[in-house]
Design brief:
The chain has 10 helices and 2 strands. By secondary structure, the chain is mainly alpha-helical. This is DUF2182 domain-containing protein.
Length: 277
């Protein structure tokens, strides 16, 4: 076989490989888009059902969502399962836009070292490790939220101080956006992976990006928890902020701009809490 024929055959094989890889990526992105739409629809449906669940009266004259309590005949286990299922759905809607870019970088990094089927399997392992971190975080959030709800029901002074505490959390979250710690976490989330194309590496990478992502989003997640976890407008705003931080050319500048908005919002909440408005 002449060198010219061998070169032409090799070129044809490379072209076929690139086409197959492109088709695989389009299928992957399409699946993620469908999952995003489904998670958004499920989150909106859950938020719409929240008013029907009722609210608990608070000693300070306000009310509290039953999200944190085993009301209406539910056990603590059912309350926790309900919260975590809502948490997973909500986080899928919020994190998928930025997670897809990380998964695409991973798939590009393992590239020709894995077949299309193996890339799909390894991507599932990465996604599983990432999801496990957020599930564990959701369980911790429920335990903390339920404990705080019980304390607020018992001590009226704590219930009255809730607006002040919420404004403080938003202010701290805004300040965190300017920190070097936030900048490091954001860099880790945006970095291209360099690792072996095997199952153990994929699982560890999923856990690592889950931890980095949770740390990077810690301030904005805290804001959502204290001001509007079941409000689609707050969710949309936080989702846009997280996605812009990860995908914009200058993510650090976006993070600082989000910090300015958060600090201003926290200051306004503080004024209202102090004035009793």
């Amino acid at each position: 076989m002449s060198p010219l024929v061998r070169a032409a055959r090799a070129s044809g094989q490379r072209l076929a490989t690139r086409r197959a890889a492109g088709a695989s990526e389009r299928v992957f992105v399409g699946f993620c888009a469908l999952l995003f739409v489904a998670s958004v629809a499920a989150t909106l449906a859950h938020n719409a059902s929240m008013p029907a669940m009722g609210r608990l009266p608070m000693p300070a004259g306000s009310s509290m969502s039953t999200l944190w309590m085993p009301t209406c005949g539910r056990t603590w286990a059912r309350a926790a399962a309900s919260f975590i299922s809502m948490w997973i759905t909500m986080m899928a809607a919020m994190m998928l836009p930025s997670l897809v870019s990380m998964l695409l970088r991973y798939r590009d990094a393992i590239g020709a070292r894995a077949t299309a089927g193996r890339r799909a399997l390894l991507t599932m392992l990465v996604s599983g490790g990432y999801a496990l971190v957020w599930i564990a975080l959701g369980a911790a959030v429920f335990v903390l939220g339920a404990a705080l709800a019980a304390l607020e029901l018992r001590w009226s002074a704590l219930a009255r101080s809730a607006p002040l505490a919420a404004s403080g959390i938003v202010l701290l979250a805004g300040a965190l956006q300017f920190s070097t710690w936030k900048a490091r976490r954001l860099t880790c989330c945006r970095a291209a992976p360099r690792l072996a194309a095997d199952a153990a590496s994929a699982w560890r990478y999923g856990l690592r990006i889950g931890i980095d992502c949770a740390g990077c989003c810690a301030g904005l997640t805290a804001v959502l928890l204290v001001v509007g976890m079941t409000d689609w407008r707050w969710m949309a705003a936080v989702t846009a902020a997280i996605t812009a931080e990860r995908l914009a050319p200058d993510g650090a500048r976006v993070a600082r701009a989000v910090g300015v908005v958060a600090v201003a919002s926290g200051a306004l909440m503080l004024v209202k809490a102090v004035s009793g408005g």
